Structures are given as C-alpha cells and as structure tokens.
C-alpha cells in the first residue's frame, strides 16, 4: 500500500465517523464523491454538517422536504452568521477564503441533491461568494534561517524532550527539513513517502501528489546522507517494525503532518518568522529562484501546473533584492 493510500484510508475513516448519527442524505452525499481527495471529502462533509447544525438551531429540520424549500435568503442568512467566530472568548472575523469554502461546500451538496432528483434549483446559485481580495503573504526561510533551524535540531534548542530522547530523532528531523527545503515537497507528500519509493543509487523518490498523480523528484548528496543516517537510526530504534513508512513516530506509526508542524515550531527558536511545514516549500521556491532566476525550473521543481502560482515566489525574491539595494543605498 502506498503512503497516500494509507493516508486516504485514515482520512476516510475519520469522515465516516463524522457521519455517525447524521441524516442518511449526508451518507449518500459522501458516496457521491469519486475523484475528490479524502481531504476534500472530509472538509465538505464537515461544512455541510456545520450548515445542518445552523439550520437546526434556527428551527429548520434537515429533511429532504425542508431542504428543497430553502431560498437564497436562507443561504445569505447563513453566510452572515458564519462571518464571525469565537476564539479564546474573543469574537473575530473569519477570512473571506474560510467563508467562501463553506459556500462552495453547501453549494456542491445542493448540486448533488439536484442530480439525485430531490430538488430542481440550487439556493446557493444567486449567492455572491466572499471576494478573496487579499493575496496571502508568502513567508520563506533564508539559507541562514534553515542553517539555524538545523543547528537547533542538533543541539535540542527549543525541544521539550530530554537530551537522550532528543538525540533519537535528530537525523529524522534533519532529513525532513532537508527534503522540504531542497525538493519543495508538500508536507502531505513527505509524510506519505515509503522506503520502497526511494532509489538511493539514482537519488530519486517516487511521490504521489494531488489527484493521485505520480512524480519523480531528485535529492542531493547531503539529503541522501541524512536519509541514510535516519534509516540506520530507524532500524536501531524499531527492529522488525512492520511498516514501510519512511518517517515514523515513537508510537511506531507513520509520522503525521501535525507532528512535523510541532517539530518545526519547537526548533524555530531565534527565527523571526512563524515556521510551518509549508514554509519549507516556499523556502525551496524562493531560494531556488534567487540562485537561478529560472521561473520554469522552480515551476517544475514544485510541480505547479499554473506558472502564475510560481510567480508569487519570484515576486517575494524580487522584493527581497529591492530591499537589499535600499539598505545598501542608505
């Protein structure tokens, strides 16, 4: 089983757990998904359940008869209700993209209802989606930041573990950072790598990304050494373990995206940026563009279909150079 299949099975199991006690129509909706990723299915089901909760709280039963009578005004009221959320006792405004994805989810559900013959029109059709006007700021680590991150991992700076416990995972954590920052792999792909996916002789890894598409990525000599060092630790720490997963936790299971996020947060002491797993991917893109100036090479490395997505990283690189010139000029 590939790492992606394993991850999908776990995600699908969590989604089915969400469906327990829900309306049968939601279960039917779940099984209408075909080509969508397990993450998309879970997100859409979650948001439709949230929408059903809103309806119930406002005295609307979530039966087929009630749902087919919903109007545009009902959806607009819901969109107004989800404009704000409460976090830590404080009322804060949700981002446009967060509200937009909720509308897409319930609109998709009503399209399913139409396809199944339960209703003839989609009440979301005339609802204006929130405009996502603000471009998300790209944050990336410089080579100096990456060097400090690795130094912190080696020295245990920021870790809450004991010195002996921290030493067990040094090579694993270094290999994760190197893979993320030199190949630009998404964290989901990093967690899904199996040992059998790696060809050390040709220094390649077969990864399966969005849409279950297979791609070959290359890694360098330093990353190869770190991977081999981790595999030696892995054999020593977990003799006879029955899993092909490359990166595993002390629980002898495939390492989760959440665990990688926690690891990066712990060891980012001294880096004046919020370091998340995606920052490794953006760091790869911006540093590669700064070294080569080749936007198409960056596009191929990241596996972007649309060059417009890649240009965002080039823009950050150019802003850095402009600021450097201004500092030198002063």
Task: Kindly list the characteristics that best describe this protein.
2 domains; 330 residues; hpI Integrase, Chain A; mainly alpha
How would you portray this structure in words?
β1 (84-87) and β2 (90-93) form a beta hairpin. By secondary structure, the chain is mostly helical. It has helices at residues 3-18, 24-30, 38-57, 64-67, 72-81, 96-115, 143-155, 163-168, 170-183, 187-192, 221-237, 257-267, 277-292, 295-302, 307-329, and strands at residues 84-87, 90-93, 198-199, 204-209, 213-218. It has 15 helices and 5 strands. The mean pLDDT is 88. The longest helix is centred in the C-terminal third of the chain and has 23 residues, at 307-329. The chain has 2 domains: 3-115, no CATH class; 143-329, hpI Integrase, Chain A (Orthogonal Bundle), CATH 1.10.443.10. Helix content is 58%, strand content 7%. The chain has a 3-stranded antiparallel β-sheet with strand order 3-4-5.
């Amino acid at each position: 089983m590939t790492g992606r299949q394993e991850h999908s099975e776990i995600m699908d199991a969590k989604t089915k757990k969400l469906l327990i006690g829900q309306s049968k129509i939601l279960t039917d909706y779940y099984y209408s998904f075909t080509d969508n990723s397990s993450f998309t299915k879970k997100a859409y089901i979650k948001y439709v359940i949230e929408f059903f909760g809103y309806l119930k709280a406002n005295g609307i039963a979530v039966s087929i008869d009630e749902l087919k009578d919903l109007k545009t005004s009902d959806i607009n009221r819901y969109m107004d209700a989800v404009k704000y959320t409460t976090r830590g006792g404080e009322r804060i405004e949700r981002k446009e993209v967060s509200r937009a994805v909720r509308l897409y989810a319930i609109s998709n559900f009503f399209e399913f209802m139409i396809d199944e013959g339960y209703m003839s029109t989609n009440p979301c059709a005339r609802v204006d989606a929130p405009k996502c006007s603000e471009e998300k700021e790209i944050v990336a680590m410089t080579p100096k930041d990456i060097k400090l991150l690795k130094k912190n991992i080696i020295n245990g700076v920021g870790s809450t573990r004991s010195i002996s416990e921290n030493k067990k995972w040094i090579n694993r954590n270094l290999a994760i950072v190197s893979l993320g920052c030199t190949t630009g792999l998404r964290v989901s792909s990093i967690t899904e790598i199996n040992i059998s996916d790696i060809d050390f002789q040709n220094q390649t890894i077969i990864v399966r990304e969005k849409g279950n598409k297979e791609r070959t990525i290359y890694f360098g000599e330093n990353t190869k050494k770190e991977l081999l060092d981790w595999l030696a630790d892995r054999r020593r720490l977990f003799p006879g373990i029955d899993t092909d997963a490359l990166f595993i936790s002390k629980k002898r299971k495939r390492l989760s995206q959440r665990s990688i996020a926690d690891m990066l947060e712990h060891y980012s002491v001294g880096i004046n940026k919020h370091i998340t797993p995606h920052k490794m991917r953006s760091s790869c893109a911006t540093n590669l563009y700064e070294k080569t100036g080749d936007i198409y090479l960056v596009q191929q490395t990241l596996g972007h279909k649309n060059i417009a997505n890649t240009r965002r990283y080039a823009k950050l690189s150019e802003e850095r150079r402009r600021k450097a010139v201004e500092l030198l000029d002063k």
